[in-house]
Design a protein that fits this description.
alpha+beta; 2 domains; about 130 residues; six-stranded antiparallel sheet
């Protein structure tokens, strides 16, 4: 089974705010620079911003999302295998899965065990299964 989580990174609140600088030349003039008067807020050709939610791109987004997933799934008996990073199991269900970006590849025995995982994920994420 595969499970796709919608907005997996975007729904993650980091432990602390992160900061990044974006070159002004990469920002659309009409839609962003003029609208938010960014030319007045640049320093050395960059605009600095505070990141308050998960975004795609920075490596720490994956770390924050994984920590949160660990915490959320632990309540349902799921854990990341100690010596094989990226593989998850359940304490008693015959199920294991891996996560790649926002997609789960799930190996399970019995439909009820797959439904157990989906029910756990649906508590915190919007998912689609196949």
């Amino acid at each position: 089974m595969t499970v796709d989580t919608k907005h997996f990174y975007l729904n993650t609140l980091p432990d602390r705010y992160e900061y990044m600088c974006i070159p002004l030349v990469l920002i659309p003039k009409m839609h962003m620079i003029d609208k938010y008067n960014l030319e007045q807020k640049t320093k050395g050709g960059f605009v600095c911003c505070e990141i308050q939610r998960g975004i795609y791109g920075p490596p720490q987004s994956g770390i924050f999302a994984n920590k949160l997933l660990n915490k959320r799934l632990a309540k349902h008996g799921y854990f990341e295998v100690k010596h094989t990073s990226g593989i998850w199991r359940h304490i008693w269900c015959p199920i294991q899965f891996t996560l790649v970006v926002d997609d789960f590849g799930v190996k399970h025995v019995g439909k009820q065990h797959a439904e157990h995982l989906c029910k756990a994920l649906k508590q915190d994420y919007t998912i689609a299964t196949d």
